[in-house]
């Protein structure tokens, strides 16, 4: 099984457990902050399911209808997850305002503190696992899921702290106030996720640091070509697509040029996994000596 799909399954199972636990305890206590955490985990469960289904589809090879693969499905799922999180945050804040206006009274505060502590612990370890797999596979869908769970860790700790203060001081209004803070944190996370997931959908180029590494790899073979230009890059899920035009001396044999291009492609793919590199070869048409031998000054 694909490591990304397996990690998504772990997220689905952990979120399912936490939704049931938080919702039961939140309703038992009458705590809007604990119920808001249950809703948050419920949206995370939906997001984890979306990530699981999208990763399973994104891992499929290219076909006749999707000749560049299915990588962008990951980005679509990331945008959907961000929208769901934003909706959940608005709902939480509306409910918190209602609770502030109507008054709050909690039962079994200690039980709520215990559940929030357990939730924070589970989400911490699952998020670390998802982040490690996301980094190894460069998966935006898994990274989005890990970001959700990381946010859950802090919100759960925040609710736990609020419940602790209620237990110590008896100030019930701290419960909806804690829920409003949770909502604000979730909104912030949703905006960050939307930006990261959306940019590849409009074919934004790779980050400057990654393009510089690609250029450095190409320039490592500068003794065998004249210059290169029209370097383009984009990302689809965990896949990178890179293409460029390479100008070579007009008397260079096609076998030599082909072998050089293979080496450039292999080196780029070794540095960036799941890369697709396309090199368009052009013979040098100038009358300068560089077209018969090579030159050392290359341009992007």
UniProtKB/TrEMBL annotation:
Gene Ontology CC terms, in alphabetical order: plasma membrane
Ranges where the Cation efflux protein transmembrane domain occurs: 9-201
One Pfam family per UniProt: ZT_dimer
Membrane topology per record: Multi-pass membrane protein
UniProt keyword list: Membrane, Transmembrane, Transmembrane helix, Transport
Localization terms from the record: Membrane
Superkingdom to which the source organism belongs: Bacteria
Broad class of where this protein is predominantly found: membrane
GO BP: intracellular zinc ion homeostasis
Stretches assigned to the Cation efflux protein cytoplasmic domain: 206-284
Bilayer-spanning residue ranges: 12-32, 38-55, 76-94, 109-131
GO molecular function: cadmium ion transmembrane transporter activity; ferrous iron transmembrane transporter activity; zinc efflux antiporter activity
PANTHER family named among the record's database cross-references: MITOCHONDRIAL METAL TRANSPORTER 1-RELATED
Family: Belongs to the cation diffusion facilitator (CDF) transporter (TC 2.A.4) family.
Protein name: Cation-efflux pump
Organism: Formimonas warabiya
